[in-house]
Design goal:
Immunoglobulin-like; Tachylectin-2, Chain A; 572 residues; 5-stranded antiparallel sheet; single chain; 38 strands; mainly beta; Jelly Rolls; 2 helices; binds beta-L-arabinofuranose; 3 domains; 7-stranded antiparallel sheet
């Protein structure tokens, strides 16, 4: 079949399209790793990948709020394009679909997670949940569909109205779940399914061949464990897979009920019943993750989002992509990667590499892990905070949190941020920092002063010590015979700078990964020499595949002034 479409002049050939009239990207960039675009110049969320004619298109939402706004501001969609995610070469098409301009019935706000697929007619259908100009319903998010001859638009509304609304799912009922996060899937027999789901319910309906009308009953899918939102269905070797946002507050994967992890379920039919198999990725830094999984260029890829870009936040997210490996029909847990992995970031904060324990933590909704996530938050949500709240009548006078390292390390200060709220949380009446001394047990650090001002960053310096554990103990503000609980969003532990960061060299032979030392001896003024763990950058096996030399960077724990370097010589 060859046809020339009137709308754009694109040539459709047997279901493929020749992108003669493909719009020009608004920018091209090279990505050094996740987040794909991490410089904070454009925030993106809800990645929905589509592999067409050797290119990977990622249709994505656009996060636009200023840093201090704690809610979604999403008014349009963008598309990221690459031939090969490993190349790091990307195009970005900003403002590719603007609901304001495409849908007469939409307010133009809340352009949430959509999904673009190619229909049997070779055209592209982008299902998007946007706000409907209808204020009579309990919730006016509705799924619209935009169509185009190419995956980059221009987009048109083929039906002039929403495709699925609250009314279609719940009729006149006042209670239900937001109609968002659509996902399209065409089975081998040509049956077209539209899925969506949020707030714990996943739904599906068949579409007719127009791709823009429902064809049958809406059903609620069953069998998932801890389904929260964002169903993404695909088929591999006859098995249907659904990956989704998994959420169960108070568990190891999602301590706070504001976080989500990524899980997958399988079924023998595209509508379930589903059986949850395993986790693919534990929660990321942002409260939402919105996963998708696709085969492209002979590899499988997971896309999701985080708040790891410069200036990022829970509502200023950035999309990420990592390779997925299979073991037979099992999806293996994905190794999350970053352009600059957390343990390689230049900081003197030792808290990130410590094991963290506490006398108590209110989980859910809060999360003890927030103390050492390395990010004092701008907009605070529960997973960004440790709380000792046990009720308004707690007789517990004090609580503690403790960092323990695998080896003794030099420490010379802490940074902390307390908060208060109208609900019984106050900064502590007093607090202190102790270190563990092998001989004498817990001893208070010397020379420290302990401010308690809420909502500002507090730095406390003290006489340097070498220790394997540091503990902060907080006394609650008394009221009658009760004690107020407290909230801490971040607790850093600072290492003093070493006198010098050494560099080294070693030899390896072709094909053999160099054996980099796990620790390095550093000299510290007053404290003498201390062996400190080193985190090395991952080495691409290409580097030692032939004779030559290259340099690897390493980050010594607690050393923020620069990287160690190791020169590697590869001999034949
Ligand atoms: O981006 C807005 C909403 O947040 C999406 O629809 C959800 O999947 C979550 O990522």
């Amino acid at each position: 079949m060859t046809q020339l479409t009137a709308a754009t002049g694109l040539l459709l050939v047997a279901g493929t399209f020749l992108a003669s009239a493909a719009p020009k990207p608004t920018r091209t960039f090279h990505s050094g790793g996740n987040p794909i675009l991490g410089d904070g110049s454009y925030f993106s969320a809800d990645a929905a990948p589509l592999s067409v004619d050797g290119k990977l298109y990622i249709h994505a939402g656009h996060d636009e709020p200023p840093p201090e706004v704690g809610g979604f501001v999403m008014d349009d969609y963008g598309v990221f394009v690459t031939k090969n995610p490993s190349s790091g070469d990307w195009e970005l098409h900003e403002d590719n679909l603007d609901p304001d301009k495409v849908f007469d019935w939409a307010t133009g706000n809340r352009a949430y997670a959509g999904h673009c697929i190619q229909g049997p007619d070779g055209r592209f259908y982008w299902y998007v949940p946007v706000e409907w100009k209808n204020d009579e319903l309990p919730n006016n998010m509705a799924i619209g569909v935009a169509v185009s001859d190419g995956p980059l638009g221009p987009w048109k509304d083929p039906i002039g109205k929403p495709l699925v609304t609250w009314k279609d799912v719940f009729g006149d009922a006042r209670h239900g779940q937001e109609v968002i996060d659509p996902h399209g899937f065409i089975d081998d027999d040509g049956t077209i399914y539209l899925y969506w789901g949020s707030w714990g319910a996943a739904r599906v309906v068949k579409l007719d061949d127009s791709m823009a009308a429902m064809d049958g009953e809406i059903t609620t899918m069953t069998g998932f464990e801890a389904f929260y939102e964002a169903p993404w269905v695909f088929k591999r070797n006859g098995t249907y897979y659904c990956i989704y946002d998994w959420k169960l507050g108070g568990t190891e994967y999602t301590p706070s009920n504001y976080q989500a992890a990524i899980a997958y379920a399988t079924a023998s039919s595209p509508t379930g019943p589903w059986k949850t198999r395993d986790m693919i990725l534990w929660g990321t830094s942002s409260t939402t993750v919105h996963p998708s999984l696709i085969e492209h260029g002979g590899k499988w890829w997971l896309t999701y989002h985080t708040k790891d870009a410069e200036g990022g936040g829970h509502f200023r997210r950035s999309i990420a992509i990592d390779e997925v490996r299979w073991d037979g029909d099992r999806i293996l847990p994905v190794d999350q990667t970053w352009a600059n992995p957390p343990l390689l970031q230049l900081t003197n904060n030792l808290a990130r590499e410590a094991a963290l324990t506490a006398s108590f933590s209110e989980e859910p909704p809060m999360s003890l892990a927030a103390l050492h996530d390395g990010r004092p938050p701008v907009v605070r949500l529960p997973p960004d905070m440790w709380s000792t709240y046990r009720g308004n009548d707690s007789k517990v006078e004090s609580d503690w949190a403790q960092y323990t390292w695998e080896v003794p390390l030099p420490v010379s200060g802490v940074g902390i941020q307390f908060h208060q709220d109208p609900n019984w949380h106050l900064p502590p009446a007093e607090w202190k920092v102790e270190y563990r001394d092998d001989k004498d047990g817990w001893r208070e650090v010397r020379g420290a002063k302990y401010p308690t001002t809420p909502d500002e960053w507090i730095t406390v310096d003290f006489e340097p010590v070498i220790t394997q554990a540091l503990r902060a103990t907080f006394k609650g503000q008394p009221e009658g015979d009760y004690f107020h609980s407290m909230i801490v969003s971040e607790w850093e532990v600072h290492s003093p700078p070493a006198d010098k960061l050494p560099s080294g060299s070693l030899i390896t032979s072709v094909g053999k990964a160099p054996k980099l030392p796990e620790s390095v001896k550093l000299e510290f003024n007053q404290l003498g020499s201390v062996r400190v763990p080193v985190h090395w950058r991952r080495i691409d096996p290409e580097k030692y595949a032939k004779p030559g030399t290259f340099t690897v960077e390493g980050k010594a724990a607690g050393q923020g002034a620069g990287y160690l370097t190791m020169k590697v010589t590869v001999t034949p």
